[in-house]
Hints:
The structure is a homodimer.
Chain A (H helix, E strand, L loop, with lengths): L1 H23 L27 E3 L6 E2 L2 E2 L16 E2 L1 E3 L15 E6 L18 E2 L5 E4 L2 E6 L4 E7 L3 E7 L3 E9 L11 E10 L2 E8 L6 E9 L5 E5 L21 E4 L3 E8 L4 E9 L3 H11 L5 H16 L2 E5 L2 H14 L4 E2 L6 E3 L5 E3 L6 E2 L1 E2 H4 L3 H8 L1 H17 L8 E2 L13 H10 L7 H11 L8 H7 L10 H22 L2 H10 L7 E2 L4 E2 L27 H4 L7 H7 L3 H13 L4 H5 L9 E2 L2 E2 L18 H15 L15 H11 L1 E2 L7 E4 L4 E7 L5 E7 L7 E7 L2 E2 L4 E3 H6 L2 E7 L13
Helix pairs in contact in A: 1-3, 4-18, 6-7, 7-8, 7-9, 8-9, 8-11, 9-11, 11-12
Amino acid sequence: MKKLLTLFLLILFLQTTQAQDYIDYVNPMVGTQNMGHTYPGATVPFGMVQLSPDTDTTRYELNGSYNSEVYRYCAGYQYDDPTIVGFSHTHFSGTGHSDLGDFLVMPTVGELQLDAGSEEDPSTGYRSAFSHENEIAEPAYYSVLLEDHNIQAELTASNRVGMHRYTFPQTDEGHVILDLEHGIYTYDEKNVWTFVRVENDSTITGYRQTNGWARTRTVYFAMKFSKPFKEYGHEKDDNGVYRGFWGKFDESKNFPEMIGKDIQAYFNFDMEEDEELIIKFALSSVSTKGALKNMQTEVPHWDFDRVKEESQGLWNRELSKVDAETLTKEDRETFYTALYHTFLGPITYQDVDGRYRGLDQNIHTADGFTNYTIFSLWDTYRALHPWFNIVQRERNKDMVYSMLAHYDQSAHHMLPVWSHYANENWCMIGYHSVSAISDAYIKGSITDDINRSLTASVQTARVPYYDGLEYYMDMGYVPEDKNSSSVSKTLEYAYDDWAIAQLAKKAGNQDVYDTFMERSTYYENVYDASTGFMRPKLSDGSFKKEFDEMDTHGQGFIEGNAWNYSLYVPHNTEHMIELMGGKDRFSEHLDSLFVMDIDDKYINRTEDITRDGIIGNYVHGNEPGHHIPYLYNWTNHPWKTQERVRMIMETMYSNGPDGLPGNDDAGQMSAWYTFSALGFYPVAPGAEWYAIGSPNVKSARLNLENGHFVIIKTENQSKENVYVQRLTIDGKDINRNYLNHSELMNADTITFYMGDTPNKEWGTVYPK
Amino acid sequence: MKKLLTLFLLILFLQTTQAQDYIDYVNPMVGTQNMGHTYPGATVPFGMVQLSPDTDTTRYELNGSYNSEVYRYCAGYQYDDPTIVGFSHTHFSGTGHSDLGDFLVMPTVGELQLDAGSEEDPSTGYRSAFSHENEIAEPAYYSVLLEDHNIQAELTASNRVGMHRYTFPQTDEGHVILDLEHGIYTYDEKNVWTFVRVENDSTITGYRQTNGWARTRTVYFAMKFSKPFKEYGHEKDDNGVYRGFWGKFDESKNFPEMIGKDIQAYFNFDMEEDEELIIKFALSSVSTKGALKNMQTEVPHWDFDRVKEESQGLWNRELSKVDAETLTKEDRETFYTALYHTFLGPITYQDVDGRYRGLDQNIHTADGFTNYTIFSLWDTYRALHPWFNIVQRERNKDMVYSMLAHYDQSAHHMLPVWSHYANENWCMIGYHSVSAISDAYIKGSITDDINRSLTASVQTARVPYYDGLEYYMDMGYVPEDKNSSSVSKTLEYAYDDWAIAQLAKKAGNQDVYDTFMERSTYYENVYDASTGFMRPKLSDGSFKKEFDEMDTHGQGFIEGNAWNYSLYVPHNTEHMIELMGGKDRFSEHLDSLFVMDIDDKYINRTEDITRDGIIGNYVHGNEPGHHIPYLYNWTNHPWKTQERVRMIMETMYSNGPDGLPGNDDAGQMSAWYTFSALGFYPVAPGAEWYAIGSPNVKSARLNLENGHFVIIKTENQSKENVYVQRLTIDGKDINRNYLNHSELMNADTITFYMGDTPNKEWGTVYPK
């Protein structure tokens, strides 16, 4: 018995130790400085709540015109800011446009202030100065000292419940502000309606309804305090709107229905020195009843530390899917933070009972799957969803079902383009759901419902009024005089169509396969041999005359110039290279891309591109280029891919607040890193192969969901030894420069033999 | 077999004949002229849809200030207007403030116009001239020729589905406008959000969310056309609001999501000469899915005539509950139209599956009852709910359960004051739910859950922040310097408290009985013996110095002056008369009331009081006076009640468009008539007795829900013979001037013997 107990304690000890391991290597501050657009707050893997500090009030419009500063606040937090406005419950991670920031909560002491006040003088409002020295950010835990109020603020979260623990000084003027006007990318008309009900002396419910990036978005909440407030009240700017009280009430104080366009509520408390006030704050897309049920189910107690521990345990479990050894501590933190970032979204979008608000604004029940939202597909189809096909196969299957549910609910009969919270925001181009879906079937994450998926994909690719698609279908390209960014659209449609064809092949549908393989060649129609670039064509069949291959505006591209975007034929790189003059010519072209100068004027005018993310004219800070470093594999110089990839990992990513070269883009930027760090990358999702690069880990054990594990190891690894000399799978030499998915998933050990000079004989066979 | 068939056909014939009878006596136009505020359109008894023409765009505010004209349009339709704007699906009947008018549909021909245009020149918009000659209004059926478009419009409705049949001329420019900006009592900020989805080539769904009288109100719809539209589109004023399209779409045409604050959509059709276009338009408070289910369940077919026939059958069934013979055809039409008006509301407020949006904005299921909304209780507790306790006992029980559900969902823990569509609009004063509930128990319409009802009533009567209630509880009256209309509030609280006491007595709760009987005497605290009127008292205990007993403003009353309102102690009229100097003094006081002059200045400044509804200084056109004509029963001159009541029925009500003396007030004005026409009136709901007046029917058979029927008959009835000579119940003489509820309900025959001179010996025993 004693032995058993010892064993039990040992296991417990080992588990606890292990449970602490991975989260220690994550720095949620990575990407919070400059344009990473990540948030440092508390969330669980793929969690519905992202409870995080906001450091500005982030208005999209000021005095009726666009506020260029707002772009820095896509995730609410900027590392260099001196004040915290409060803690809101929903945040995108790494997006390039924004929304959310729902339900700002802020504890204060002293005179009641319902405006946030200014950064220059936080005493003008409820916001507070803070210092990074008094700040801790861990997965599922965030803590900061709010200096102006002498309140220690701590945050943690379960999937659907944010938990706040505020340690107050002694005061009879303690307040908790609940600001429903606050939001990310707000403007005067952003709030459609806000609604707060005081259910009893410690329970609040309500909702915030907004338009904006999401046209019609409603999030419901339930909020409970660990002790009763002594009084409460609210202000709103739209006092004129409601006309029903007949002078019966002073609705501003202790009136339990606070309703209008921009409710700013407060709750007052007497607090003892060091007394803790705990708040549970649950979300729901369905109703306040749903939020209360989420709270009661997930966090029925008031034990903050228990929620923190359980949620950090969830993180450890997910992060343990890759047990990586790296050359340096910095690399390890960079890797695990990237891994962390790839597991932030898409987020869970259903209540504990499976119900969620669908695209048609009706309540649906996710039957047999977990419903997810935040599909930033122009970004995430590239590497994030492929990454999930290795380490989050179950979730990726459910994400496919979530996309199909979106399709079923779509008035357009389309799969999601960029969807969040029961809305299609139509951001960016293409219909890349089809890529994510196709890749999931090709890689076996999902096997059922293939015909349903194929029908949805085909139908999506045939919506005539979508973004130049009718022209594309009729003419084989999008004409720039009919629809802008026409080259980018043509190229991406062509790739997407190829992905549909792969799905059709898997489904055994030859007709669809043939049709979409034909469409997948349409990239040829925008190649201009005279310049060697993809180039916008007009509806009369001629190329657009004025053409600046360095510019990202008005040249037929979007968020990328001709130098970068012309290289986008991931499904037929070999043919693209032929068009562009053959392997050697192409290799030189790539060399030029990485070393040429680019004028500031081209950078400054594009939101998503900053100097941080650029090497020569290669833009790593934005997605259209992510596959480019791997394209040397199709030339006679695959070792240049190895070199570039290591250089990008070394120079563009780090473990500090400025550790991302651009928006993390819902995990895509980080997924590029997690793939590359392991030595390969999915250049063409929907294909079975990964292009080999150069791993920067010493080793990594992939703990797959089916119980099998794969060890990726290196020999002779170092910062200098970036060149692959030899590659073996279970001891068998592989001389091609790609790896098939089934090989990866079934291998026991994949070994990279590294060296400081290229092995020019190795890896000359590329994927076709 | 042949005999059986003959019998069957005979029964069918009789039923059909009978089925046509009662609706023929109803003129839905009654009250549409001047200030009756009724609507002429199609609805079923207590139906959720009220599909009716609107003749103006009824803006509550014009250029930021109150539009006094709007008051004429509380129900959307004014008889004297020359044009129809369109047909909207929700209407109050007879209210004194307004809302609704959701989902205006208008068929047009020719150039597309999305504005309503002006009354002076309807060709400036989609509205059309019309003539009463080409107009038919029946229960559940309305028809009109839209002259500008040469379209014959017909409307009918089931409970939750409005049905339109439009017969077009030949045109390739046929349109159906769906205007979600339109509403009753609209203003710039009235619409919170509107949402329209084109589900397929003939099905539309969506919702309209408003604030206003209802603070947060959302109504969902589903709309189906009998043939596909050829194209569609929309306009909205708030084009700046939504920022998400990135130039991808022209959302104004054939874009299936039309979203914004004020969508005006159109659907285009090619129509042959005399081709019918039928529209089914279902409502739901839950969701568009709920609306579709309502449609599919109630009207799965396209047979307009069948819906009309079935719904008119429902009306006949309800109207047959009183089979009245009258002296004249006009009286018969007046009576059945009044009966019709008493059966319009409260309206059904749940989907076919029992689900509805509750006061907390969550979705609830009515379990074991039908949920109703539109409780205009300051009006309807007086006679409408008592009327239901005779002829709609099942429904009234469900209305009590609906009020209890409201209580359960109320953040204030209050029963409804004036509630509609999941909102408390707080209109007028008192907490008269307690009267309606108490009366329902006293009269046995409901027996279960009495303690639940008592708790809800007591709790409601103790909400300290409600409308002076804390003062009332503390000081025994509402002080005018703390809360205006203080006398009206004090008097009505005192009566309501008496009603609670009656419920407590029935429940056997002596404590509550004693407490509330004590509170029910508080009317004494505002009686001013020096003037003989109830008079506003200040918080220092003194009466307010300036006092104009003719004025309705600033004198401590609301919608009534001291002359009328001082007579409001329905639960202890005997004591009130003592206070006021005894029976003879009081009888003279009443005489004065009915003959004195009142200056126009007092009338013009009160919305709810017009010359039409006034006799001397007695205001029948508004509720505070409705019991007054019956008060002679407590004097030595009960025959004056008989005289006055007959005079009021004869002069204030008729069968024409101007046939109501003021707002029908959700049926209260008509319930006064139906009671009075039968010869009695519930002066103090919650008491078992009815005060005897003077019936104007020749006879009436009350077909009770339990199968028993009561014949009320008269002998020697005529227009002149207004005085009751003798009253018998089943042959037994009754000399008191009241009738108990149980006597009424169990009687076989009640006979009034009438004469042209008072029988001053009869009826001197009054209720105590």
